[in-house]
Amino acid sequence: MSIDPRIQTLFAQAEQVLDRDAFLRSVMRRIDRERRRSLLVWAALSIVMIAGLALLAPPVVTALEMATKLLPVSLVDIETKWLQLLLAPINTVAAAIAIGALAIFRFFRKILS
Amino acid sequence: MRYSADFLGKSPESVLVGLARTGDRDAYAEIVSRRQNWIRNLMRRCCRDPALADDLAQQAFMQGWQSLRQLEDPNRFAAWLKRMAINLWLQHKRRNDPLRDATPHSPGDATTEEQPAIAMDLDRALATLADDVRLCVVLGYHERMTHNEIVAFTGLPLGTVKSHIRRGTQKLRQELAAYLDINEEST
């Protein structure tokens, strides 16, 4: 063991009893300040989110409305009733988009693998 | 629910840590009150400058409050706080000019105490050591940690820790020869 007991004694002698109250006050003041700061940040974020939602709500609702109207539209008009029902799952804008996305995904997977 | 100062004053640290984890500010104030002297002295040995040492100690307590929920075992609070304080000092060293510690900061409002001559001379001697050496020496002498505990704490290899402490001890013997002679004469 390379610890020198004389130096260890010096370390013990150098130990000070420090003023507790001022330090404690300072720490708790910093903690309280930090608490207030994080509360303010949360409050500001909440306000921004609410304002953002209020501003974006009408365009988002309009876009959703348009999508719900557009997605089930048939791509090809089929006269025969049973054939129309049979092809309904793939004869829509939504199906075309899904098939297109799947094709792109497979294409990229193939060239990247 | 608020607990009385008397109850908090008599409670073991693990209970206080448990309460502080639920957001009890008074319980944490009691922990700070009990641990401040130890952590401030440790920081003084690490960074020489009392004002900087107090600032780092305050930061450690603040970080402790903020991340108390991450502490799995309340009985390990002291070791956990020590690690945080040492990491803050090392971060401070990395951020700043290595020569900055050679000249003390102007004293801030964090401390007004007069340092005894022995503490000043010891800190001056410690400041001549390289960071890793000083860390090992402080952990070995101030914290009375064994070599293996220092290895676990710092992540340095055992051989390095031993050589750091040996080299640091030699340097301290030279720098503090006057004190060592006085101590020897008085015993």
Question: What is the count of structural domains of chain A?
Answer: 2
Note the overall shape of chain B.
Answer: globular
One letter per element, helices H and strands E, the order of chain B comes to HHHHHHHHHH
Give the overall average pLDDT of chain B.
86
- The percentage helix of chain B is over 70%
Helix tally of chain A equals 4
Chain pair forming the biggest interface? A-B, 27 and 45 residues
**Helical content of chain A, roughly?**
over 70%
By DSSP, the count of extended strands of chain A is 0
Number of helices of chain B: 10
CA radius of gyration of chain B: 18 Å
Distance between the termini of chain A: 59 Å
Q: Major β-sheet of chain B, in short?
A: none
Determine Rg of chain A (CA atoms, Å). Answer: 35 Å
Structural class of chain A: mainly alpha
Strand content of chain B: under 5%
Major sheet description of chain A: none
Inertia-based shape of chain A: elongated
As a percent range, the share of strand residues of chain A is: under 5%
Q: Any low-confidence stretches of chain A, pLDDT <50, length ≥5?
A: none
